[in-house]
Amino acid sequence: MTSTMKTLLSSLLLLVCSLTYSQEAMRRWRKLNQVRNDKFDLVLPEAMRENQIDMWIIMNREGNLDPLYTDMGEGYVGSFGGYYIFTDRGGDRIERASLGIDGYLLKQGGAYDYFGSVNELKEFVSTRDPKRIGLNISKNIGGADGLTHSGYLELTEILGKKYADRFVSAEKLVSDFRSRRVASEIAIYGEAGELSYTIAERALSNEVITPGVTTLEDVAWWMKEQQFKHNLGSSFGMPSVYITGPNGVEATSSDRIIQRGDVLMIDWGVGLMNMYTDMKRMAYVLKEGETKVPAGILNAFDQSIKVREIIQKTIKPGVTAKQAETAVYAALTKAGFNQMKGFNEYTDLDMTDVIIGSHSVGNWGHGIGPSIAYWNPVRIEYELKPSNLISIEFFAYTKIPEWGGKKLRVPIEDDALITSRGIEWLYPVNPRVLVIK
């Protein structure tokens, strides 16, 4: 092949790659626009009215963007900042305006009715005269706490005492708006789940792991590289690749070399188009001469699958997350499992100890919707609704003979959708203990 032909071929490959990347970028942007328009049309009116908020102001500053920036469509925020403003003016639609935030991606997304100057804020608000103005202020939910103290003071100064007296927290509105899903979001989440579990299961295989050679951090960095290749984000930083032994977790994503007989776990998630997964997988490294996973470890895993089945059958919409938690533990107790008092507070009983933490997922690995998790004391009182995304997460501790009767903690976690029928999976869930030869 001549040098001229090589140059032409190289140029052609670059052109093909650039077209592929631009097509993927546009595909993702178009899907996010669909999500945004659907949520503004279908979710926002009911969320604002249920929370009795007439106007919702989301303030952004250059270099300090609100957590909902991507949800709202992003856009260019200059040095004077800007606002997304949603006003309930009656009818079946919420008015959407952007003051001081613009740019191609936001304007071409088709979600906003009006684009104006940041200096229009006072007149814009006074013309509409809202009775309750929701601001992203929250001491309980970080994703609903985007307004800074100086931003609050600025709004108070611009709008004056009359409207400052009408400011209320939009905490519950943010939770409702984000956690009530439209079909376009669910489609994206399923795609993210497929990528997430595929990478995790490949990581726990001989494709990546050579016993006696590969370290935990080698596996974690391989997973990070897969995120880079697929342009995926994460809520959790470094993937948690860890070894659990008779005395609990021995090492996590460290230079610990993976040995035969190790029980490996992965806890991680990926981010795709503003949707973030959270899941776990488990594997066993065969010892020399072994051809299958030891019976005690398999039994511990089987017990955890029974727990998952009970949880799936028990959780229904229309009740608070706390009521769902109570119902799940009652069903588990009836089936012969022991409810743990706290995380890692397992017993010496000849039964499987269980603790659940089925938290909200979605726009982060730990979402901000109703949460069946003891560490979310506010959101555990929120009502479970059809279309909520939830991580079915729990830990089951079962005695295994191979460890002299000590208990193995089996972590199970996969993401699901709450429907009118109950829990429905979004991708193939954890089916077995993976085997590394």
TrEMBL record:
Coiled coil: none
Pfam family, one: Peptidase_M24
Family matches, as CDD domains: APP_MetAP (cd01066)
InterPro entries assigned: Creatinase/aminopeptidase-like (IPR036005), Pept_M24 (IPR000994), Peptidase_M24B (IPR050659)
Domain Peptidase M24, chain residue ranges per copy: 191-419
Membrane-spanning parts: none
PANTHER family registered for this protein in UniProt: AMINOPEPTIDASE (PTHR46112), CYTOPLASMIC PEPTIDASE PEPQ-RELATED (PTHR46112:SF8)
Name of the molecule in the record: Peptidase M24
